[in-house]
Amino acid sequence: MIKLISSGEILEVIIRTAIIFLVAFIIIRIRGRKQLAQLTLFDILIVIALGSAVGDVMIYPEEVVSLLRSIIAICTIAVLIHVFEYLACRAPKKITKIIYGDSAIIIKNGKLIKKNFAKTNLTEDQLRAKLREKNIQYYSEAKVVRLEPDGGLSVQRKRNDKK
Known about the structure:
This protein has helices at 7-31, 41-59, 67-90, 93-100, 114-117, 124-133; strands spanning 104-108, 111-112, 142-147, 153-157. The protein is an alpha+beta fold. It folds into 2 domains: 7-99, no CATH class; 103-157, bsu07140 like domains (CRO Repressor, 2-Layer Sandwich), CATH 3.30.240.20. A 4-stranded antiparallel β-sheet has the order 2-1-3-4. α1 (7-31) runs antiparallel to α2 (41-59) and α2 packs antiparallel against α3. It is elongated.
């Protein structure tokens, strides 16, 4: 059965939602822009953490979920992101790979590298579709194809010396 709530409770939900939305927006805006298709695993973790920090505070009353605690959580997430990115920029490449992942060469000199491809969680049909988006119909047209940590493909085409 649906429990009716008072107009005061409705107003509280609206105000808390607006406040937490604005705080989250400011934090994300400070973080910078990134295309959705370019999300790394680290970025997805950020989305999940922020979603958790902003979700409950929007709908539950102060007695259940503290607005100030949620703002502190969001700011903590932003600081942790900054620390991880700072470390990734200044740490050895091995640490950067742990944080952001690494690209995998899946086609080299027109041949599928089965060992690397098996680690990608792509089917051959999905790979072919991604290659068609890059205007490549056959593996043989590619010199090197990398699957990037964000799921995008980097393609280096073979040179066509025929005139």
